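Memo to structure team: turn this sequence into structure tokens by end of day. - J.P.
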Amino acid sequence: MSIVQRFGCVFAVCLTMTAMGRVVSANPANPDPLGGWQILAEDFDTSSYLDIIAYEWDYYMIHDARSGFYGIIGYLISNPRGRLSDLVQVLPDGGNIAIVGRREGEKPVAQYINFGLDNYQASSEERFFDAQLPDGTDFGRQTPLRGGAFDGSDAMRIEGRCSLYSWDLVISQDWADRNTDEVRPTVGTDIGHLPEEIWTVDVIWPRTVVRGTITDLSTGETIDIDGHGYRENSWGRYLLTPDGWDFYVFSEDRDDLAAAGIPEDEGVSMVVQTYHKSELLDFTDISFYDDGELKNLRFEAAQGEMSWWHPHWQWDNESWQCVPLDAQFDLEDEDYRIEVDVTIGLENERPILSDITLPVARYFIQELFPHYEGRIVNKHTGRLVREFSGHGGGEFSFYKSARLWPAPTPLCNWWGWSKFSH
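Reply from structure team:
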């Protein structure tokens, strides 16, 4: 272990023991989905002693049942001002990309790449990102396209290459009537262990159109993508390595809707966000049509409107931790009761791992490719509004176990039930 890594571990522990009591503030959401990076904006508080753990991601999901490809691609900026970068890195400094891909019937694969502070560019004016390793191999790029979508709306072009895949995709908003100001963004001031930790989750496009190509570099096969997905922008100052999240995304596939005789733009869309340490960031946004009327609803754990748990857990040697194999969500307000069963299975999970810094080396992000089944009931009439099912995405993240040997399944179940439910 290098001196930098050792000091990084000590520094991360010191951060968690510090309490300076200053008032935290949040950046407002950017009204422009192609607008600049929030942590580079002039009004982002750079004077915080936690600026070293300022970071932000643009996050994209890909769900394409026709080609059988499901994936996640993320562009991440961390500690952009290089605070103490010569001495310590808590999270990998500078520009980063992550990609996870799953082909139908195959185990997902994942890769994380750090470009450092000197090998990337990003803009405070528009959501531009460009990074490349000095040897000219791996790169990641995203470019705002004003009016660049197939229907003339705004879009993001995302490109990149790593040892697993190369990709060139155009992402635009779908089901725009689901994206209401009432349900975004959400700020968590209770997110971490320190007074100035703060995290904002902005579901920019709850459902997207995804078109382009992904090339599997292990086989040379180019996959034509014509599917849907999800786009999120989240940012703040957050020491994630002693904490983490547990979130799920689903929207109905157009072929499934057509087979059921439902118009393509009248499907169910659901985003579940939960963070282990925060209650303010535990919410579900779900939209659907009831008797021809669109319902955009938010259920909040803090208001007693949602509960969840993971019935089954299993040890994963890659993550070196117990991970969930399924989930159940119950949502209820004065009008609707919604039940959702999520089936994952270890064969549909893969961790994103990195050993660039010691805190991150002790951490994992488990990428999930689940199957969803749900039902929506109108409480006033007792009528079943909709049943829905299909494939989606999700993540579970936490720190690795300190155990020296794998935990048996009964112990994993006890551990998971006691820690990750509401």
